[in-house]
Specification:
5 helices; alpha+beta; two-stranded parallel sheet; 2 strands
């Protein structure tokens, strides 16, 4: 299934800055500095105003649109060392 054909039509009418001012779950963003400005600037604006119990942005100077693939080893490290312990703490 092509994500573009399914996901993007559902998102076109949503302005996260207006429609999603808060989330009740932690949010982690993987950001590439070489992402298109038309995508990156609204994301950064939304992230700055977003209210969430935990939020963190991981920015890659040499990253573009697909930082999860471009930096897969670092993504794996962050998921295992930061996000997993924060969202599923050992009791």
């Amino acid at each position: 299934m092509d994500t573009f054909d399914v996901l993007y039509p559902q998102l076109q009418g949503i302005d996260f800055r207006r429609d999603v001012p808060s989330l009740d779950v932690p949010i982690y963003i993987f950001d590439g500095e070489h992402e298109l400005r038309g995508r990156r600037e609204p994301l950064q604006e939304w992230f700055g105003m977003l209210q969430a119990p935990e939020k963190q942005m991981f920015t890659y100077e040499d990253g573009g649109h697909a930082v999860a693939f471009e930096h897969a080893d670092d993504l794996d490290r962050i998921l295992n060392e930061i996000i997993l312990p924060a969202t599923y703490p050992e009791e």
